Amino acid sequence: MSFSFEVFPPKADKPLDNLLDTLEHLYVFNPDFISCTYGAGGTNAGRNVEVCSAIAKSGRTIPVTHFTCIGNSREDIRKSLHTYLDKGVNHILALRGDFPEGWQGTRGDFNYANELVEFIKKNFPEFCIAAAGDPEKHFQADSFEEDIAHLRVKQDAGADYIMTQLCHDVEQYKWWVDKIRKAGVSLPIDVGLMPVLSKDPIIRMTVSNGSSIPRELAEIIARYGDNPEDFKKAGKEYTIKQIYSFINAGINGLHIYSLNRWKDVTDILNESGIRNLNTSAAR
Ligand code: FAD
């Protein structure tokens, strides 16, 4: 099973130092890779390159850049991919991206992620390519069958593995894996796991993706929603249980959305015991 983190870049006007410090604390857990998000529409794309390049330079793990079709022409994409390669980054999560407010389409040369995957595979075969998968169905797809058929197209276009959207419902995840395997999707799956740390962000991030809030999590929200400290404590315990439930489901990789909160992530990993390492440097 692979083990990895996601981070996001600082805002354009903020220094990189805090994130570099966060990375140092995450390296302690010997992740197989660390991925860095990319603002759809290219907002803050420069910071994404800086972060990926810093990870590459560290020599501590593999950087995986997220990249979207939004607002990008073929030529823009070609230039960006050359830049990544020049910085030592040859792993990519190829996404369509969410439309910025008021947009109806990507306003770029590619409408869907499968076209980006195909372009990268053909023109930049040195990249290892991940594609997104949605265990609860992408919110714009009319049916699971349709969404899974589109996932299959990403596999056929050359994706090497799947990274999932957040999904708190492990039974739903298992059902989806069964469905996609029957549909011929055989790629390894890294499960994206969102730590439960604060009430409003977890609700917002969950529902904005069309994902559901299981009863156990709803109960934590109802019981501790007015008390951030108690909420975080219960949320961390819930996250540890989730980690084990996913591991028991037989996943190929665990991808922790770190939210750049290395202290909380360190607590969760140390308490879970899944990374049996000397983590004293992270404390
Ligand atoms: P697609 O695979 O293109 O699918 C989008 C929708 O179109 C789906 O409903 C699908 O069923 C349908 N579809 C797909 N192919 C076709 C086709 N050929 N014809 C017709 N319909 C089709 N967004 C960011 O902006 N930045 C990030 O850094 C970022 N990181 C992410 C990390 C992970 C692990 C995940 C899972 C998502 C991330 N996202 C990010 C969000 C992602 O961009 C959105 O979920 C987006 O809405 C869909 O992207 P996709 O690559 O799944 O698109």
TrEMBL record:
Transmembrane segments: none annotated. InterPro entries: FAD-linked_oxidoreductase-like, Mehydrof_redctse-like. It comes from Clostridium luticellarii. It catalyses: (6S)-5-methyl-5,6,7,8-tetrahydrofolate + NAD(+) = (6R)-5,10-methylene-5,6,7,8-tetrahydrofolate + NADH + H(+). GO terms for cellular component: cytosol. Its cofactor is FAD. Pathway: One-carbon metabolism; tetrahydrofolate interconversion. Belongs to the methylenetetrahydrofolate reductase family. Gene3D superfamilies: 3.20.20.220. One of its GO terms (biological process) is methionine biosynthetic process. Keywords: FAD, Flavoprotein, Oxidoreductase. Pfam families: MTHFR. This is Methylenetetrahydrofolate reductase. GO terms for molecular function: FAD binding; methylenetetrahydrofolate reductase (NADH) activity. It comes from the Bacteria. The lineage of its organism: Bacteria, Bacillati, Bacillota, Clostridia, Eubacteriales.
